[in-house]
Amino acid sequence: MEAETIFNKLKGRKPKILGEEDFFRVSVLLPLVEKDGETHVLFEVRASHMRRQPNEVCFPGGKMDDKDPTEMHCAIRETTEELGICESDISNVIPLDYLVSAFGTVIYPFVGFIDDIHKLRPNPDEVGNTFTVPLSYLRQTEPERYKINFEVQPEDGFPFDLIVGGENYNWQTRHVDELFYQYDGNVIWGLTARILTHFLELTATE
């Protein structure tokens, strides 16, 4: 029976994101450090000559490549390359929730601890500078929130005659909250702010 063959083929299958093989896959590390006796979050500022998002605040990380056996390995590898430290300088690496952006990117964030902030030797090819923000400040600061609206724009020649409603089809408009943190002249926003907010919510103290 064909149905039995189908179920046997699918049995034990682990689901993934539909179309994942076509997505841009990125891993990042949210680094915690100890500074002046207090826990801080470390951020990078991308180098001004970078082709994508120059001078923007981010976490260390980057695109997964074929040599990365896991998402965690990618996050650690990228962090060591960008901050000039060894893998052994990073401890307690734990996954956060991954997210899928509206532009076909899957981001796998992790949190970890960099044991000695004085060992940092940022790679000038990728990193303009680094800065830290006290975790206590971030926990006490509500981010500014603004909405971005994504509207559907079908391409020329779209077959409206094949869908109910045709050109008057009621496309759904998506609303996304854009978050902003400001600290000492630095602006943390975009996916970095979303990951940061997620981390703060997960670790909120009663």
UniProtKB/TrEMBL annotation:
Domain spans labelled Nudix hydrolase: 23-156
Could you list this entry's UniProt keywords, alphabetically sorted: Hydrolase, Magnesium, Manganese, Metal-binding
Q: Which SUPFAM superfamilies match?
A: Nudix
Q: Which cofactor does it need?
A: Mn(2+); Mg(2+)
Top-rank taxon of the source lineage equals Bacteria
**Name of this protein:** CoA pyrophosphatase
Q: What taxonomic ancestry is recorded?
A: Bacteria, Bacillati, Bacillota, Bacilli, Bacillales
